[in-house]
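Severity: low
Component: inverse-folding endpoint
Summary: output formatting inconsistent between runs
Steps to reproduce: submit the following structure tokens with default settings.
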């Protein structure tokens, strides 16, 4: 699970905690939370193309290992200015092979659109990496109404949406596993 927002005052960690609980309750995944604020990747600074996997910076080597070890992803992401979080796009752009043939679900949040414009804007990038964005997801509208004192309170439809997304993510995880390159590098 990747919490994408990195800016001060962000709501992503509260949404991420709820999404983590939903994934644990689902019971089909061993879940690790990768908070991009903690991963702290600089703006893409590798001198070599990501296809080469010839990383020179320790932060990229660590990020590569975390993504490589994962079979599927849930991106917990806001929408900024009708687009994806720059931190998420940057984190994706650091790597190439590590993302191949892995499914991704979204828990998006924002105003009236629930972060969906940002999700739709990043899907072509993911598709170019042979990732499969699952159609089911959780879109949280009017996020500020749902987070009080750092705690996210879902609407009644959110848990069922999360379960449906995780069911589909599991199907795609198994279906795509044989297509993935073997081992690092």
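Observed output (run 2 of 3):
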């Amino acid at each position: 699970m990747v919490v994408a927002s990195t800016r001060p005052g962000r709501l992503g960690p509260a949404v991420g905690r709820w999404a983590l609980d939903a994934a644990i309750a689902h019971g089909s995944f061993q879940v690790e939370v990768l908070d991009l604020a903690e991963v702290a990747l600089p703006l893409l600074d590798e001198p070599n193309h990501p296809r080469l996997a010839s990383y020179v910076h320790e932060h990229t080597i660590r990020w590569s290992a975390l993504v490589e070890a994962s079979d599927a992803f849930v991106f917990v992401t806001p929408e900024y200015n009708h687009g994806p979080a720059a931190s998420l796009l940057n984190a994706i752009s650091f790597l190439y092979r590590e993302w191949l043939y892995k499914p991704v679900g979204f828990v998006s949040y924002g105003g009236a659109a629930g972060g969906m414009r940002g999700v739709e804007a990043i899907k072509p990038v993911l598709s170019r990496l042979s990732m499969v964005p699952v159609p089911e997801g959780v879109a949280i509208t009017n996020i500020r109404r749902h987070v009080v004192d750092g705690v996210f309170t879902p609407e009644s439809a959110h848990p069922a949406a999360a379960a449906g997304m995780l069911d589909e993510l599991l199907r795609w995880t198994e279906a795509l596993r044989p297509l993935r390159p073997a081992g690092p590098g």
